[in-house]
Amino acid sequence: MTSLIGSNVVRSDGEDKVRGAAVYAMDFAEARTLHAQLLRSPIAAGRIRSIDTTRAAALPGVRAIVTAADVPSNTSGWILKDQPIFAREEVRFIGEPIAAVAADTPEQAAAAVAAIELDLEPLQALTDFDAALADGARLIHPDWESYAMLVPAPRDGNVAWESTLDKGDVDAAFAAAHIVVEDEFVTPRQHQSPIEPHAVAAHFEQGRYVVYSCTQYPFLCRDRLAEWLGVSPSAVRVIATTIGGGFGGKIDALLEPYVCVLARKTGRPVRLVNSRREELQTAGPRENARIRIRSAVSAEGEILAQESENLMDNGAYSGEIVACSSVPALIFGGTYRVPTARHRTRVVYTNTPPTAAYRGVSGPYCMFALEQHMDHIANELGIDRRDFRMQNVHQAGESTTNGQVLSDAIYPEAFARVDEIAPWAQATADQQAGPLRGVGIAAVTWLTNPGPGGATVKVNEDGTVTIVSAGAEIGTGAMVTGVRQIVAEELGVSIESVILAPTDTDTGTYDGGAQGSRTLFSVGNAAKMACENVREQLLETAAGLLEAAPEDLELVDGHVGVKGSPQARVPLAAVAQTALYTGGPISATGKHVTPPVPFDAGCMTGALFTGFTTASYHVHQAEVEVDPDTGKVTILRYVVAQDVGVAINPQQIEGQIHGGVLQGVGYALYEDLRVEDGVVLDGSLEHYRLPTAFEAPPIDIALLENPTPNGPFGAKGAAEPSILPVASVIASAVSQAIGKPIRSLPITPFEVLRALNDETESLAAAAPSPTR
Amino acid sequence: MDHTFTLNEQRVEVDAPALTPLMTVLRDELGMLGTKNGCAEGRCGACTVLVDGSPVVSCLTPVALVDGREVRTVEGLTAPDAPLNPLQQAMLDHGAVQCGACTPGILMSLTALLERESAPDEMDVRNALSGNICRCTGYHKIVDAALAVAGAENGSRS
Ligand code: FES
Ligand code: FES
Prior knowledge:
Chain A has about 775 residues and is α+β, with helices and mostly antiparallel strands. With about 160 residues, chain B is α+β, with helices and mostly antiparallel strands.
C-alpha cells in the first residue's frame, strides 16, 4: 500500500458540500424552534436610564424578552474578563446587545425589538487612540481594576493591557549607531467575513444548555458560556455544526449566550443568526493599529538595536487582542537579528466594536511595518533590499530578541527557492524598464499554536475506524483529510474506512480550537498516539488468531498479517470482533500539548505569546505594476516558499496558501473596515470589498520540507502563515514602483495617486528611481 | 398569493407575497437549504440559482418573477442517491471546496457557463465567477476544476 502521507485525498465532508446537503449553523433548526433578535445600542457611549419592554412583550408571537436584569451580573472574557452578556449600566459601542427577543418568526422578533423603549443618556464617546489616551480621559470601564484576568499584566484605565520587551542597553546602541532610521505606520481593521455569518441555536435539556454553533473553538465557547451564565462548564454542551468559514472570527463566543438565556426562559429551542450588516458592524475584526519603530544600524548594515511603541485597538471589550500584545515584539525580533531592543505595546479601550483574532492575528501589520522599515534602512544604506534581508535573517541556531533559539530555521533555502522561481535580479531589472514596476520580498517566522488536544480512536466491528475529537473542521481540511490520513496510515487501513465523529464537547476530550494552524498538528499528534495504543491491542488480539508473536505482525491493507508471509493474515473486522470477548472493544485515547519554548523570561512583561512554538519559516515575493493614471495596482506575479514541516496533504496546503494570499491581497489593496465616531461605515459587502476571482494573482508555491520532531510525521501548522507577508511584499513592490514610501493600508488607487503626486516624499537617494 | 414554478424538474406551488425573495421561499418554505444565505443583499453569490438556465441571486429575485419559469438549485445537479456530476466531482478532486458555504452558488454559476459555452477559457471562467465570493480558496482551484470539466467535455465531443 502506498503511503497516505503526502497524498491528496478528498475531504470526507466534500460530497455533502457539493450536493448542498451539508447543514451549517445558518441552516440548523430543531422542531419548535423560536427565532431570536437582538436590540443593540444605537450610540457609542451612554448610560442606560431605562429599558421598557412592556409594549414589545405584548406583540403577537413574542415568547420572551431578556435584558441585563434577567442574567447574572458576571463579566466574562477569555483573557480579561470585562464583558457582560447585556449592557447593564452603560453601553460602550454601537451594536452592543441590550436586550434579546424570542418569537415565533424572525419578523415578529424584529417587530418586538423595534418596540422596546430605550432611554439612554449619551456619554462622551472615545472612539480613537488619542481620545482614549488623552490626559484625564473618561474611563471607558470605570471598574477596570475589578476585572479578573487569566494571567496578570500591566493595565491602566483605558489601557486594557500592556506588554513590553526590554533587552540590553538600547540607549548605548542608539548612541553608537552609524544611522538611526525611524518610521510610523497606521493600519486599518480587516473583517474576516466568512460566507456564513455567526449563527447559533440552543435548547435546555436535563438541566444543561445544549448549543449548536459554527464555533472554531467549542471548549472556549463552553467555558465562556459557563462564566457568563454562572453555571459549571459541564452544564454546557457545545456541538459544532458544519462551519462556513471562520478565519479567527469564530474563536470566541458571540451570539451563544443569548440563545441559551432565551431557551432556558421559554423552554423551547432558539436560534439566532447575524445579518451581514450585524456581522460587519459587530463581529470583531482584526484590530486597527499604529506602530512607531526605529532602528540603530551599523555602517555594515547590521541592526544594532530596535525600539518600538505600538498601539492596538481593543474596542470596548477584550477578546483575543490582549493576548496578542506581544506579537510586535516577537515579530520584530523573530526573523532578523536584533540583539538589543525596547518594545512597548498598549492595547487600548475605545468606544468601538470589540476587535478579535483574524488569521495570523497581529502579524500582518507588524510585518508590514517591519518590512517597509527594512526597505527604508536598505535604501538609506544603499544596499540591495534582498541582500540586506539575507544579511540579517536568522540562521539556524540563532536566537530571537527574547532568547528563543531557532534551531531549524531554513531561510537560505527559502530565499533560494523563491529566487529559482522568480529571480530577483530579473525582477529588479524589469523594474528599470518600461512602466511603473516594482518587486518586494519579505521573510517571517511564525508559530503553530501550542494548545492542548486529544483524540479517541476506536476500531469498529466491521474493521472501520472512528475518530472522536472536539477538533473543529473550519474548512481547512485539517480534520476531514489530514487527521484521517494520519490514522489511516498508522493503522494500515484505507482512507475511506476512517470515519470522523461529530465535534462535540460531550464526547471529545479538551481541544484548543481551530486556531493558529494547530488542528492537524495537535489532533494529529493525539490521534497518532491513540493509534499506537490501538495498534498494540490489534496485534495482541491477532497474535492469538494467527498463532504468531505480536512483534512478527504488521498492519497492512485493513488486515493484521505476519511479516513476510502475505497469506497469513486476518481482516481487522475479525480482530475487532474477537477482541470484544478477549481483551474487550478496541479503542484508545491520545493526547497532545506542545512543551513551552525556552526563552529569556526576564525581558518580557504582559506576554501571553512568548515565542514561536513549533516555528516555521516563510519567504514571499511579489511583482506589481502600477498604472500612473488610475493608481491601480496589478500583481503580476506572486511567489510563496513555505516551511510546512511535512506536507500531509499538499493539495489542501496549497488551498490554504491560495486563500491566505488572497486575504492578504485584500488587506493590502482593498479591505478597510472604516469606523468613524464609533460608527462602522461599512455595513455591507457593497462597501466592504472582498477580493473576487479577478483579483486573484498568479501564485507559484514551493512547499519546503523541514520535518519537526514535535509534529505528526514531521508536519507543522500550515494554515495561517500565508497571510502574514502579503501586505508587506505588495507595499514594498508598490513603493519601489512609484518611488514613494507606503505607510498605511490599504493601498487604494487614491492612496497611490496621492503618494505619486506628493513632491515632498521620496525613497532615499540610493533607491532605484522610477523611470517615468 | 400563489406562485407556481418548476423547481429541479418538479412543479411547486407556494403561497407567499409577490416580493418575497426566492431564496426565502426556497430555504424557509420549501426546505431547500443548499441555496445559502451569505448576505441577503446580492453581493456574495452564495444564493445563486438558475432561472431558465441563467444564474440569478435568489436573495434579490422576487418569487413572483419566477412564476411559470424553471428554477434549478444545487440539489438539482444530481439526485441525492445518484453519483456526483462531473463538475461536483471535479471540485472535490481539485481541492476547490474548503468551508463550502460558497460552493452551491459557485456550482450554479459554473453550470450555467458550461451549458452556455462549449469551450470556455480561463477568462470565461473568471467572468462567470465574478458574482461569487469565496473567502477560503483564493479561486485558483475552482478555476482549475471548471477548466478540467470544460476540457474533458471538449475531449469527449471531438
Ligand atoms: S445571499 Fe444572495 S448574494 Fe449573498
Ligand atoms: S470554500 Fe469557503 S467561501 Fe468558498
